[in-house]
Amino acid sequence: MTALWTAAEAAAATGGTVAGDWAVTGIAIDSRTIAPGDLFVALSAARDGHDFVADALARGAAAALVSRIPEGVDPARLLLVDDVMDGLRALGAAGRARTQARVIAVTGSVGKTTVKEMLRTALAPQGRTHAAEASFNNHWGVPVTLARMPADTEYAVIEIGMNHPGEIAPLARLARPHVAVVTTVAPAHLEAFGVIEGIAHEKASIYEGLSEGGIALAHADVDTAGILFDTARACGAQLIRFGSKDETEARLVSAEVAGERTAIRAVIHGRDRAFSIAAPGRHYAMNALIALTAAEAAGADPEAAMQALSGWSPYRGRGTRERVTLGDGPTIQLIDDAFNANPASIAAALEMLAAAEPEGQGRRIAVLGDMLELGPTGPALHAAIADHPALARIAAVHSVGPLMAHLHAALPGALKGLHTPAADAMAEALPARLREGDVVLVKGSKGIKVSRVVDALRKLGQAAGDQRRGSP
Questions:
Q1: What is the residue range of 153's domain?
Q2: How far is CA 209 from the centre of its chain?
Q3: Do 357 and 243 reside in the same domain of the chain?
Q4: Where does the Mur ligase C-terminal domain lie (predicted)?
């Protein structure tokens, strides 16, 4: 495997010192996930990463990035810097500087990971493409992604997230994208920002990192669109507006759901575009429009991008669908959207559920967990879900968590399902409330752990599979 960094290159990038001659093929920050040849970065968070250097090397790491020499560790396998986090940022900056890749950076209250994965799919057939793993989008995730970027990369997609003011701009400046995207602005992390305008300003700060002559993509349908437009122009960026309005440069004309696919019609810079994706939902159509527009802005062939996007489908926790037989009970359709939640993504998920077709006498069932980090507005935002038009096509809403208790109280009697304070209780009680042909959506913030409901349903399905195979 080609070396990602030699000892000399890594030392020059970080200003660190090395005593040995080694080469690494990857970057890791968790000693438990070390692959042979990795550079282990000894970050300090809940635990001091230096305590795990010996274990990382024993597991196959070629070297470690450290700020002191751990006891019993061979100095020849270390890159010694003054500060590990600063060293990681420097390595990421060097990774970005040495490549000629066209870089796209993506942020937004909803959809940034989905758009990042769509871009990975759209660009991969057109050139060597590098994109963040999972949601590597924070103060360490972005430098890791950049440091992992091979020097011969042709397209790079960098996801940038935030929890507090002032996080996005420094990461955008590190990534120096040619194209910067704000997927949308919605109530999320209100606890830290107070008002949605504060969120819009923070998201728009991604444009501050654009390379000279860079392109800014901004959602024209949101109430805070003006903040995005003004910031993009102030940064000297070429502005591309997307959404459903006629005046946008990239307009979603229609999104027709048929079974497990969505047929999309759009107009981008005056050209008609028609394609489909292997996922049902208007929110996926808008994400696909963003990805296609960003890919074209980065110089990719839009026809090839559309063809590649036709094979895209979401991955676990992001709206995947599967059939599950619950032990010796009913077979249901499970929609796993349990990774995260805010008012905008809950609305999109409910619309997706409302468009789903149950089998036989099945029903549409929602299992919703708390939306976290909404601050004082949290109770009201949870209760407001009861007014969403999609609920007219949903049979019951089960809820999990103290904040979702406000939704439970606001629901009319016919919709009011079970409420539990925690996910484990819902996981235990829900299967008995389901029947043949039901479509079951599970959605909530990661911290409320409604993924345990998904896991419980899947385990019942595995048990049923074992019984059919004759396992003891």
A1: 99-309
A2: 20
A3: no
A4: 331-445
